[in-house]
Write a structure and sequence with these properties.
The complex is a heterodimer of chains A (188) and B (601). Chain A is 29% helix and 20% strand. Chain A contains six helices and seven strands. Chain B is of the alpha/beta class. Chain B has four domains: 75 residues, Roll (Ubiquitin-like (UB roll)), CATH 3.10.20; 140 residues, Alpha-Beta Plaits; 176 residues, Rossmann fold; 122 residues, Dimethylsulfoxide Reductase, domain 2. Chain B is built from 20 helices and 28 strands. In chain B, helix 8 links the parallel strand 16 and strand 17. Chain B is globular. The N and C termini of chain B lie far apart (60 Å).
Chain lengths: 188, 601
């Protein structure tokens, strides 16, 4: 029996981005398992570290999802670009929301951090702070996204549970702003 | 006493009854109305610091912290309005942004943390304020716990606990504004603190991960642990323990708030020493120092025990359960002599055991406390805490007579060596006790020396001359855990073990060292008993930990420890307190009672 094709509604265009994070939030996104098949019925993931097709330029999207915090000049530039091109920007995971582990360095001057990592580290034999102009400059402090751009939705968690991510995405697809409480959110 | 006036107020439209003097929060809680709190803790004075419990009072333009605001008859209270909830959220966001609350790397996360919980129920996802990321110190110099200032929310629950429950006031809040922080003593570290007793009550009452127990950090959140209520068997006070276990290991030990004796408080012995320290456990029977099976060990004992009844003796540690005492009494019929070994001067204290009903509660109500020949701050920390509270909070007089100095001396009106009998001192004692209406005398082993007895008689004589003074409350405070009940069952306390062993030519000696800490039977080591054992043909030691005793023994039988036992102990108030098994038995260890029954079958 053949079905008559019905006109499909336009898919929601999504970009995801990975700044200073551990990729755990993207792993958690993949942890929605078979529900991803349901998700791609409604969503086109155009730009992401976990898709094969790379765009030369960042596309304009409906939703931008960002993991990790802003640690260097390159990440700052990328995030600002995504903010311009995404209608809704989501900070996914504790690094994006609070700074989390990368922000531990904020208690110390940047110079000391670099010296500890590149000059005093027991494992480092070269003993030189990278200074090639191609290497993006570290910012004096690591910043959660909202200190750099306007963030529309925060999803805390390290990483957020797959169920939390699924809940947030389905709510957004249904046209609602997800409401988090003790049942569907955690900070750790 | 006049009954407090009944009042009634309306909270969220619900009429709530209460008593004059109660706070709004008290009445709301009693009526199952939820108001979020962080700095409030039942049993401590109101602090009003976290501002989460703010409520609106009709007719007042200001909001009020419900934990610190006395309820007024007829007022109308609103606990959750748009304005209040917005303020609470803002307060929480300020708390989150002020210090480095990095939940994923906190040992206290996943459901235990009060700050996290409040964040969840208020739906806080992102923080609107800039994070301050201050550089703050972590102090891990204390033996059993540490303080991480990064996670502190300055609720001062630890400060109040230290001051109002343990009574030492080691912790306090120093500096102002953004530099405000919890300090130890005069801004030193826990390790260098002269006042900290390591009781760990502050850690148990900390709502975040700022104060943490080293041995339980990252070992599992207590909300997911099994909880077993049991009794501490380290001293005769018998405090209630709430033991948290997970996958057959102890995660933490807290005081049982419903314990009739200690009401949730513990000292360092019960809180940490029994589990947070590595101890050299004996897990299999040993014959001549080599591991053996139980059958081999029992056969070796049978061989060594083929001597006359008069040549056999049984020596028991004063810390076994009442059920084991029954087995000891049964075994006593098969040996020439039986005794329990107790500390110096303790024999006289245990020989005529007296139990004081409800001693700890009455002690806190006393208006004059005399401590004579006892060191509660070393041996019975919870008694010392009660004394400090009575003296510091209720203004009770304190007189300490002991040869050794202790931290109680600094709170004492009179602190003297027990042998000092100068008349000048006695004039001062008389003056101090002049108005005592509810005196209490806490006497320990050293009160049983001739001079100690003289001092005590003199004190009682002084108290008797006081007009209107009731009978002094006498609390006997032995060091040994269950010595009083064991003495009641007819086991003779002996302190001079040397002469006791030499009195008869012994060929077989069975020692029940049980789970005595510091490797078992330090008391016997003090009396040079291990050296004496070499003269005896066959020495059998049943013990949980390795010690000089077990090295000298021909046969060592592994005994269970406090968290594997079941039975009862009797505390100094005469209460029968349950000892429940918390963990399954480790290795080949067996219960003291079962071992005695199989050896003396």
């Amino acid at each position: 029996m053949k079905k008559t094709p019905t006109p499909k509604p336009a898919k929601v265009k999504v970009a995801t981005m990975w700044l200073s994070g551990c990729s755990g939030c993207h792993m958690s996104l993949l942890d929605i398992d078979e529900r991803i098949l349901e998700l791609v019925k409604h969503v086109d993931i155009l730009f992401s570290p976990i898709v094969d097709i790379k765009f030369k330029d960042m596309p304009y999207v409906d939703v931008g999802i960002v993991e990790g915090c802003v640690n260097n000049t390159d990440q700052e530039h990328e995030l600002k670009m995504l903010r311009e091109r995404a209608k809704v920007l989501i900070a996914l995971g504790d690094c994006a929301v609070t700074g989390n582990i990368p922000s531990l360095r904020n208690q110390f001057p940047l110079r000391e951090c670099l010296q500890r990592a590149y000059e005093q580290a027991e494992s480092n034999k070269i003993c030189c702070i990278p200074n090639d102009p191609i290497v993006p400059k570290l910012l004096p402090k690591a910043h959660p996204l909202q200190e750099v751009v306007k963030v529309d939705l925060h999803i805390p968690g390290c990483p957020p549970d797959a169920d939390t991510i699924w809940f947030a995405l389905t709510e957004l697809l249904a046209g609602r702003i997800p409401q988090f409480n003790e049942t569907n959110m955690r900070y750790d | 006493m006049i009954a407090p006036k009944k009042i009634s107020l309306t909270i969220n439209g619900q009429v709530c009854e209460g008593e004059q003097g109660q706070t709004i929060l008290d009445i709301a809680r009693a009526n199952n109305i939820y108001i979020p709190t962080l700095c409030h803790l039942k049993g401590l004075t109101a602090w009003g610091g976290c501002r989460l419990c703010v409520v609106e009072i009709e007719g007042s333009p200001k909001i009020a912290p419900s934990c610190a605001t006395p309820a007024v008859d007829g007022t109308k209270i609103i606990t959750h309005s748009e304005r209040i909830v917005a303020l609470r959220k803002a307060t929480l966001e300020l708390l989150f942004s002020e210090r480095n609350h990095i939940c994923p790397m906190c040992q206290y996360n996943k459901g235990d943390c009060g700050l996290q919980h409040q964040g969840y129920i208020h739906g806080i996802t992102g923080i609107r304020y800039p994070y301050l990321y201050p550089a703050l110190p972590v102090d891990v110099t204390a033996p059993y716990f540490g303080i991480d200032q990064n996670r502190c929310i300055l609720c001062a629950r630890c400060v109040r606990t230290c001051d109002e429950i343990e009574g030492v006031h080691t912790l306090d809040v120093a500096s102002r504004g953004i530099k405000n922080q919890i300090v130890v003593d005069m801004n030193t570290t826990f390790g260098a603190s002269e006042t900290c007793t390591n009781c760990g009550a502050c850690v148990a009452n900390c709502p975040t991960g700022a104060l943490f127990d080293k041995a339980s950090a990252f070992r599992g959140q207590w909300t997911s642990c099994q909880q077993v209520l049991t009794t501490c068997t380290e001293c005769p006070v018998g405090c209630g323990l709430k033991v948290f276990t997970k996958e057959n290991r102890i995660v933490n030990v807290w005081g049982d708030p419903d314990s009739p004796v200690s009401k949730g408080h513990l000292c360092v012995k019960g809180r940490y020493q029994t589990w947070a320290e590595p101890r050299d456990r004996i897990l299999t029977p040993l014959v001549k120092g080599k591991p053996a099976t139980w059958d081999e060990a029992l056969a070796a004992i049978k061989k060594g025990a083929r001597v006359k009844k008069a040549e056999k003796a049984l020596l028991v540690a004063p810390r076994v359960t009442n059920e084991t005492v029954a087995a000891i009494t049964a075994a006593a019929g098969k040996v020439g002599q039986t005794a329990m070994f107790v500390g110096t001067n303790e024999a006289a204290l245990c020989a005529e055991p007296t139990f004081t009903e409800d001693a700890l509660r009455k002690l806190q109500d006393a208006d004059a406390i005399i401590v004579i020949g006892a060191l509660p701050s070393r041996d019975n920390g919870v008694v010392a805490a009660r004394i400090r509270i009575a003296v510091r909070k209720a203004g009770a007089k304190l007189l300490v007579f002991h040869a050794r100095k202790s931290d109680l001396d600094q709170y004492a009106d009179v602190a003297a060596n027990v042998v000092s009998l100068e008349s000048k001192l006695w004039d001062k004692v008389k003056a101090t006790l002049a108005n005592a209406q509810r005196p209490a005398i806490v006497y320990g082993p050293n009160a049983m020396t001739p001079i100690g007895v003289t001092v005590m008689e003199r004190l009682i004589a002084i108290l008797e001359t006081n007009a209107g003074s009731g009978e002094p409350l006498l609390i006997g405070l032995p060091v040994s855990a269950n010595a009083l009940a064991m003495s009641c069952s007819g086991i003779v306390p002996v302190e001079e073990i040397g002469p006791w062993l030499d009195a008869k030519p012994l060929k077989y000696l069975h020692i029940v060292a049980s789970d005595a800490p510091d490797g078992g039977a330090s008391l016997l080591e003090e009396k040079h008993v291990p050296a004496l054992l070499e003269q005896i043909g066959c020495v059998v030691v049943q013990a949980s930990y390795r010690s000089a005793l077990t090295e000298k023994a021909a046969v060592v039988l592994p005994a269970t420890i406090w968290c594997e036992k079941s039975g009862t102990v009797t505390n100094l108030e005469g209460r029968q307190l349950p000892v429940r098994p918390v963990l399954p038995v480790t290795g080949e260890a067996r219960d003291d009672k079962a071992i005695l029954e199989s050896v003396f079958a």
